[in-house]
Design brief:
The complex is a heterodimer. Chain A is 34% helix and 0% strand. Chain A has 15 helices and no strands. The longest helix of chain A is centred in the N-terminal third of the chain and has 15 residues. By secondary structure, chain B is mainly beta. Chain B has one domain. Chain B has 4 helices and 19 strands. In chain B, the strands form 4 sheets. In chain B, strands 3, 4, 5, 7, 9, 12, 13, 16 and 18 form a 9-stranded mixed beta sheet that branches. In chain B, strands 1, 2, 6, 8, 17 and 19 form a 6-stranded mixed beta sheet that branches. Chain B has a two-stranded antiparallel ribbon with strand order 10-11. Classes of the chains: A mainly alpha, B mainly beta. The interface between A and B is medium-sized, with 31 and 31 residues.
Chain lengths: 359, 278
């Protein structure tokens, strides 16, 4: 119990390090207790009109070349903005090698996508699904194509005028509005948060035991999934983020190699030590984002925990796995306690909040 | 304005032998034609197996011409779509048959240079570092956001050649890789991957043939060719040879604003000079 209290103090300290929310003309993030303010680029300040414009664009199928998909096609609110698929499917039917990532608390991400050290902002990130072709996701051909489609929409043009002033709805403004909306996707009212806030009964005894296991040196979970957002790939206002990546031992095809179709960070850096390194995703709402891992290859939380119990594929012989992937032994009861804790990170309010839903 | 830009460029280059009588700018047109196995090729002619064209576009820049009085830089004549003073997009696909881009094509470089006639041209396949890593949402044509932007690499695809060969889709995307920094604030790239093409020709009577097959090399149709720009990837080797960038990669010249030099390259195997058809 002493350890659990220590863990609670640590967790509380982590969630309290942020600054109090500051007023921004007509805008409030409505942050959960203790949450820091997301980083907001100086050239893209928040406003209600911009967020509303971004929400409408997020759900607008005109953002795909053939008019069949929007951002929300792969980022479904009720699944914490994932799609339930192991591999995402683009607007032309092309199958993505990776699984759609959760947008929970995406405004706190230090860097975006699974294994790209260059993607430091939501504005720039949105270009990849819109125009990318390997694979085709939304499949837009050009900025002019999109701008022409939106030019006649009085509602969107009116919001653009309010948010940005004269000049119409350009691609740059589309990106900024989408990013502003995404920064509002903040989840911090789960049973775990209520427990940290002092409501001890918010967590079942099982979940409380699971919490203790999660933050223990025995499982080592918290090294990569630490901090208020349960990932080490985070930043917020006043905290310069680090862009971290880890090899969690998901594959070892000899000498720690990953399948050629997706080898993670090494695709950018070319450095052998970056083989199989991916970003640790947030664990908030993790129960509703199955299947798991960058390629959706683990179907359940039970499978994920068993993967880490085994110390990943290849075990100690795997030269590339992260030093915190060491393997451990859990009883069946402990494993279900750990799952109960992970389930307590689900925030039902976030998954149903109409502010984040389709217009 | 573009004449001013050009004369500024000219005065900045001491290597240029400038004859005052030739200082008046002439407009020249350099025509390109896509080919496969020696025959003219486009989306309509390559619409069935074994070679079904999907896409064929590439950027060129840093054009220099050799005229009667020596070598001089040339400036592209800007249009609203395919050419700025510095960069031109060659576009051989018209969205018909198996092609997936848009209907407009651009197969002729229009440029100004202070020469009355052209004996040879040298150009870069690719985009200069200073222009390659900007925010495409704010960029001007031909560097606007779209199919040629490389969202996840933070630059543009210098070359995009795609085709279905013997039923298997193949993609050749060439451009700078191993970049560091952030998407629209890249500071350097370990592999610039720009090609250099030098061709002796008279654009009035000759044109440039671009061999689409050269980008796929000698691998047989049916092999999975999926080059995402990594020079170490065997799928990319033919592509970088095709644009004259293979020799540069061996030199591993680091790319940055400070060190943006070009190295001597091996010949660009995809480019040859042929007689200009009427």
């Amino acid at each position: 119990m002493k350890a659990a209290l220590g863990v609670m103090a640590l967790a509380a300290a982590l969630v309290l390090i942020g600054k109090a929310e500051r007023p921004e003309t007509g805008w409030s993030f409505r942050l959960p207790p203790g949450f820091p303010r997301p980083r907001v680029p100086a050239d893209n300040p928040m406003s209600s009109a911009k967020v509303e414009l971004g929400r409408r664009l997020f759900y607008d199928v005109r953002l795909s070349g053939n008019g069949t998909q929007s951002c929300a096609s792969c980022h479904v609110q009720s699944r914490a903005f994932t799609d339930g698929l192991a591999n995402a499917v683009g607007s032309t039917g092309e199958i993505h090698r990776r699984s759609s990532m959760s947008l929970t608390n995406i405004g706190y991400a230090s860097h975006l996508t699974w294994a790209n050290p260059l993607v430091d902002g939501l504005e720039a990130q949105a270009l990849a699904p819109m125009f990318g072709d390997a694979p085709t996701e939304l499949g837009l051909e050009s900025a002019a194509q999109l701008e022409a489609r939106l030019a006649g929409d009085k509602t969107l043009q009116g919001l653009a005028q309010e948010a940005f002033g004269a000049g119409g709805l350009t691609l740059d403004r589309v990106l900024k509005a989408l990013a502003a909306f995404e920064r509002t996707l903040i989840s911090g009212r789960s049973p775990y948060d209520r427990y940290v806030g002092g409501e001890v009964s918010a967590l079942s005894p099982e979940a409380q035991r699971g919490l203790e296991l999660f933050f223990s040196e025995r499982t080592e979970c918290f090294h990569c999934h630490g901090g208020f957002n349960f990932t080490d790939a985070f930043g917020h206002e006043g905290a310069e983020p680090e862009r971290k990546f880890h090899n969690n031992g998901l594959y070892d095809l000899g000498a720690g190699a990953y399948p050629k179709r997706d080898q993670g960070l090494i695709e950018h850096s070319g450095r052998p030590e970056d083989m199989g390194r991916f970003k640790a995703p947030t664990l908030r709402n993790i129960d509703v984002t199955a299947p798991y891992m960058h390629d959706g290859s683990l179907a359940t939380l039970d499978a994920v925990i068993r993967h880490y119990e085994a110390g990943g594929r290849g075990g100690e012989a795997n030269p590339r796995r992260d030093r915190f992937i060491r393997g451990f032994i859990l009883t069946d009861e402990e494993r279900s306690d750990l799952i109960a804790f992970l389930e307590s990170l689900t925030d039902p309010e976030f998954l149903a909040d109409p502010r984040f839903g389709a217009p | 304005m573009r004449s001013l830009l050009l004369s500024l460029a000219l005065t900045a280059l001491p290597a240029c032998r400038q004859d005052t009588s030739a200082a008046s700018l002439s407009t020249h047109r350099l025509r390109f034609i896509a080919t496969l196995d020696g025959a003219a090729a486009n989306c309509k002619s390559l619409a069935a197996p074994p070679f079904r064209l999907r896409d064929a576009r590439l950027f060129v820049s840093e054009l220099r011409v050799i005229g009667p009085d020596g070598e001089t830089p040339a400036a592209f004549v800007p249009d609203s779509r395919f050419q700025s003073v510095e960069v031109a997009l060659l576009d051989f696909e018209d969205a018909t048959e198996g092609c997936e881009g848009d209907s407009a094509e651009h197969t002729e470089l229009v440029f100004e240079a202070p020469v009355s006639s052209v004996r040879a041209v040298t150009f870069t396949v690719g985009i200069p570092f200073a222009l390659n890593h900007q925010n495409p949402a704010l960029a001007r044509a031909p560097l606007t956001a779209g199919a040629m932007h490389w969202g996840w690499r933070g630059g543009y695809k210098f070359v995009r050649i795609e085709a279905q060969r013997d039923g298997v889709e193949g993609r050749i995307h060439l451009g700078s890789t191993g970049c560091e920094g952030a998407l629209h604030a890249i500071t350097s790239c370990a592999h610039p991957n720009r090609g250099t093409v030098h061709l002796e020709l008279d654009p009035a009577t000759q044109q440039v043939a671009l061999d689409l097959g050269a980008f796929f090399g000698s691998d047989k149709g049916g092999d999975k060719t999926d080059c995402m720009g990594e020079p170490a990837d065997p799928s990319c080797h033919a592509g970088y040879r095709a644009i004259g960038a293979a020799g540069k990669e061996a030199a591993r010249q680091s790319d940055s604003l400070a060190a943006n030099t070009t190295n001597p390259a091996m010949g660009a195997s995809a480019f040859t000079v042929i007689r200009r058809t009427p």
